[in-house]
């Protein structure tokens, strides 16, 4: 099987040229049903023809049809033929799909490992998270935990996962994959590293479950290490877990009654964590959004900055909804609990009473010293919405030209989105969902 050639930039240019060149060339789909005797030889001969459609998008469409029909021998033939004659247009998915086809067709798995090495080479060149995810997924699903492939084209699961974590630290899947790698190789240093990475950020909407499950996974590996007479390594893992579990800054807003209060925290370098933007590039996250619907209900909002920059944090409480139908049921005060170095054994806690009758409610500031964050997370801009059809665009203009549109959050209450500003180029958020991560869930708190 020919090795992929050229750089990522070269391949992108050639793919554009292939798309233009094949605009009027018949699709390879016209050949469906003609490969009855020997699909491998048929498709090799087809792609050897310089007049054949060599657009990668056409190959993708062809393979998609063959997948539906479960014609895996044809899929193997298509990809073998295409990659043999057009390796300068190779894409990661081609090698990965060919590996799956070889596996299903009970082919040579040593050759399959070589192909994954080629896929890893392309993924490293592109640095596209989608490509990296595909390679990591196929390695983990087949339990190829050590480097595979030929010299110069190795696929190393650990190295791929480290690249992914740097590219998309906001996604949980690379950490889940790393946890499984640490468990299968019984590697306490790797488990400690992934614990530090996961616990160094807040996870809006699922933080408690993630922290609980991470501790459980570390505890399980600790027991395994002790049973294997590796007590020193087990102790080191638990020491690092305890250090990783410490939260530099915790801000908890608590109240009782029928009300919806919002918590926002302006961080020292300029970002703000709030309802609309629950996580910032400076490490803070609004991990729990509370709303009281009963008179005796205890409610809370929680902001965590597990690794914080030093400086002034400005905390603002706002009232979105507060029993307007019955003034007697109005919530008059809330409690703000601020803790520095939470879980360290040397917690510094301050409690403030927030007067909700103030208009506006006075902000509270806190000085953070001894924070452990040293790097800003990658900026992730929201995806742009596709343009509206012309018929709907005119209607939309009429409804938005007057007063700004608002979204009701409760009886008589609104929350208006802030204006969008110019932002730096966004990192592409991949849509690839790894199959290997279905075996682990860090979203539901579990009892140890």
Give an account of the 3D structure.
By secondary structure, the protein is α+β, with helices and mostly antiparallel strands. The protein folds into three domains: 8-160, Serine Threonine Protein Phosphatase 5, Tetratricopeptide repeat, CATH 1.25.40; 173-245; 248-368. 40% of the residues lie in helices and 17% in strands. The chain is built from 13 helices and eleven strands. The strands form three sheets. A five-stranded antiparallel sheet has the order 4-5-1-7-8, with no helix packed on it. The chain has a four-stranded antiparallel sheet with strand order 3-2-6-9, with no helix packed on it. It has a two-stranded antiparallel sheet with strand order 10-11. Strand 2 (259-266) and strand 3 (272-273) form a beta hairpin. Helix 6 (109-126) runs antiparallel to helix 7, helix 7 (129-141) packs parallel to helix 9 (173-185) and helix 11 runs antiparallel to helix 12. The longest helix has 21 residues, at 207-227. It is elongated. Mean pLDDT is 87; it is low at 381-386, 398-430 and 444-448.
């Amino acid at each position: 099987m020919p090795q992929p050639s050229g750089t990522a930039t070269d391949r992108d240019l050639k793919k554009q040229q292939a798309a233009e060149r094949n605009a009027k060339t018949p699709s390879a789909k016209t050949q469906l049903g003609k490969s009855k005797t020997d699909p491998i030889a048929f498709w090799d001969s087809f792609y050897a023809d310089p007049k054949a459609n060599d657009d990668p998008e056409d190959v993708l469409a062809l393979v998609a049809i063959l997948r539906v029909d479960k014609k895996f021998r044809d899929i193997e033939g298509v990809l073998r033929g295409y990659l043999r004659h057009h390796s300068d247009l190779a894409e990661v998915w081609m090698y990965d799909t060919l590996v799956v086809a070889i596996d299903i067709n009970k082919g040579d798995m040593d050759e399959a490992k070589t192909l994954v090495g080629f896929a890893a080479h392309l993924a490293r060149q592109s640095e596209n998270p989608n490509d990296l995810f595909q390679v990591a997924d196929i390695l983990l699903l087949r339990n190829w935990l050590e480097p595979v492939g030929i010299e110069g084209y190795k696929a190393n699961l650990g190295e791929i996962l480290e690249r992914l974590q740097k590219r998309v630290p906001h996604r949980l899947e690379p950490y889940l994959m790393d946890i499984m790698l640490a468990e299968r190789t019984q590697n306490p240093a790797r488990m400690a590293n992934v614990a530090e990475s996961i616990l160094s950020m807040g996870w809006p909407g699922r933080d408690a479950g993630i922290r609980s499950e991470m501790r459980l996974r570390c505890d399980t590996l600790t027991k395994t290490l002790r049973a294997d007479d590796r007590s020193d390594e087990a102790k080191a893992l638990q020491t690092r877990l305890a250090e990783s579990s410490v939260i530099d800054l915790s801000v908890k807003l608590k109240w009782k009654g029928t009300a919806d209060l919002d918590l926002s925290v302006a961080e020292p370098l300029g970002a703000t964590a709030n309802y609309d933007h629950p996580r910032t590039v400076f490490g803070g996250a609004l991990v729990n959004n509370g709303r009281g619907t009963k008179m005796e209900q205890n409610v809370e909002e929680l902001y965590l900055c597990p690794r914080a920059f030093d400086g002034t944090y400005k905390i603002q409480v706002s009232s979105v909804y507060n029993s307007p139908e019955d003034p007697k049921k109005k919530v008059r005060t809330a409690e703000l609990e601020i803790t520095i170095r939470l879980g360290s054994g040397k917690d510094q806690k301050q409690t403030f009473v927030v007067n909700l009758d103030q208009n506006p409610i006075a902000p509270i500031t806190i000085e953070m010293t001894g924070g452990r964050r040293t790097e800003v997370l990658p900026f992730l801009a929201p995806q742009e919405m596709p343009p509206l059809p012309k018929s709907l665009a005119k209607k939309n203009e009429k409804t938005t030209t007057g007063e700004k549109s608002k979204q009701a959050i409760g009886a008589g209450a609104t929350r208006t989105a802030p204006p969008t500003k110019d932002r730096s180029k966004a990192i592409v958020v991949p849509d690839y969902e790894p199959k290997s991560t279905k075996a682990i869930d860090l979203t539901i708190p579990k009892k140890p």
